[in-house]
Amino acid sequence: MSRVPKAHPRAESLRVRERLVDGFKSGLVVPEGLTAHGRGEAFDYILGERTSKFARRAIEAAVAEMLLAERPVISVNGNVAALVPAEIVTLARLVGAKVEVNLFHGSKKREMAIAKYLRTHGAREVHGVDLKFATQIPEVNSDRQKVDRRGIAASDVVLIPLEDGDRAEALTKLGKRVIAIDLNPMSRTSRAADIAIVDSITRSLPLMIKTAKGLSQKPREKLQKIMKKFDNNANLNASLRFMLERLENLSRG
Ligand code: PTJ
Q: Is the pTM higher than 0.85?
């Protein structure tokens, strides 16, 4: 039961914080996850805490890409698990993706807790927790180098929400198509990705689910067309200009 008063003008933002803090207390989220969220909130404030049309375009392209993929995988860290566990499971089912726990601040205990939490939200199989299947990807210096042979290592498309730039770059170098969700359009992750969704994960995941329901009925040619039309650099630059315009308008009062 939420402790946030319903009538509070920033109720939604406070509820999201509450989910993250609960996740921290129950061992899903690291302290650094709380600061990362604060950074995201600052960008979201500039975006007007709404999904821009540029993010919607990226969402459409991302879902098309995942539906066309042969071995798509969704990478889950502590923040992602705490904020959108059920949505991750639903999206994975709709696009036929595997779910893999992959942590920046590696910890066996937290991996297990996240996998269990995803299972209580309906996940049947969670990769990334069984050492028998663990392997490493090159050029990543953090704990994120550990991946599952059946999951990220074998994937052709990886969705990496709230990720660090190192692994995003490493995954693209490995020839994988990378989809990021990151509120910072300037981050190395957003720039390295093939598709970057500049939006809060709490809004973009429900929208991805809705989009997947619609696009899964469409022919492959239509999905290919959506994907080919998308230009990540142009879309990121447009997102930045959108933020600049908002700041300019606000500064005029
Ligand atoms: O659970 P772990 O150990 O894997 O750690 C997770 C964190 C998030 C701590 C780790 O991945 C990390 O340190 O990430 P970074 O490098 O701080 O990057 C997180 C990015 O996500 C930043 O660019 C934030 O602006 C962005 N971000 C934060 N909250 C959200 C977000 N983007 C979308 N939605 C959010 N709610």
A: yes
